[in-house]
Amino acid sequence: MNSHNIEKQQELQGDVLLKDTNKLVLWNDDFNTFDFVIDTLIEVCGHTPEQAEQCTILVHYKGKCTVKTSSLEVLKPMHNQLINKGLTSEII
Fold it and tell me: By its UniProt entry, which Pfam families does this protein fall under (predicted)?
């Protein structure tokens, strides 16, 4: 296989990966505390404390933040857990 074919194959594999990738977006609200959101992101999304804090700050100041990028199968349970904990999220 020559280098052009390898590059083309990698490009096609990248396209397939992008099609299977969705975003879990967390929206700001006026009810939940920073600490609660941080703890929830650590528990539900597997964030480090630093990641969770950064996402929480972005949600607060920007109104929303993509907290996880993955396949729909991975994100759907996380979305449901966030909703069950009283947070507002969506998968796009």
Answer: ClpS
Q: Give ∠ CA 5-11-12 in degrees, rounded to 5.
A: 90
| Residues pairing with 41 in the sheet | none
| CATH number of 40's domain | 3.30.1390.10
Report pTM: 0.79
Instruction: Name, in order, each residue with C-beta under 8 angstroms of 14's C-beta and a sequence gap of 6 or more.
Output: none
Which residue type, as a one-letter code, is found at position 29? D
Residues 26-44 have pLDDT tens digits of 999 999 999 999 999 999 9
Instruction: Give the position of tokens 């396949």.
Output: 71
